[in-house]
Amino acid sequence: MRLSVDLNRCQGYAQCAFLAPDVFTMHGDEALLYSPYADPEQRERVERAAAACPVQAIRMDDRDDAAPAGAREGESGAR
Ligand code: SF4
Fold first, then answer.
1. Atom 8 of ligand 1 has which residue's CA nearest to it?
2. Residue whose CA is closest, atom 3 of ligand 1?
3. What CATH architecture does domain 2-62 belong to?
């Protein structure tokens, strides 16, 4: 699952870091660090974080092609 945060909107409220700490981390008082590619099992937590964000800065994208380049290496059935 791919996700993005509009850092122009983000006000560092840290709701996301509280609800999905494996994906979102606060660095200092206001700077947000996040992983743009979250494991599918993080989906529910990320959904809660997105819903809780006071400024609606978190966007999720579930498309299969949202994986990073090279992530298909090792895919079976290619022959
Ligand atoms: S909850 Fe929203 S405003 Fe708060 S740190 Fe996360 S993305 Fe930024």
1. 10
2. 10
3. 2-Layer Sandwich (3.30)
The confidence band for 63, taking pLDDT boundaries of 50, 70 and 90, is confident
Question: Residues lining ligand 1, CB < 6 A?
Answer: 5, 10-16, 24, 32, 53-55, 57-58
pLDDT in tens, 6-52: 999 999 989 999 999 999 999 988 899 999 999 999 999 999 999 99
Domain range list for the chain: 2-62
Tell me if 61 sits within 8 A of 23, measured CB to CB. Answer: no
- Name the phi and psi angles at 25, rounded to 5: -135, 140
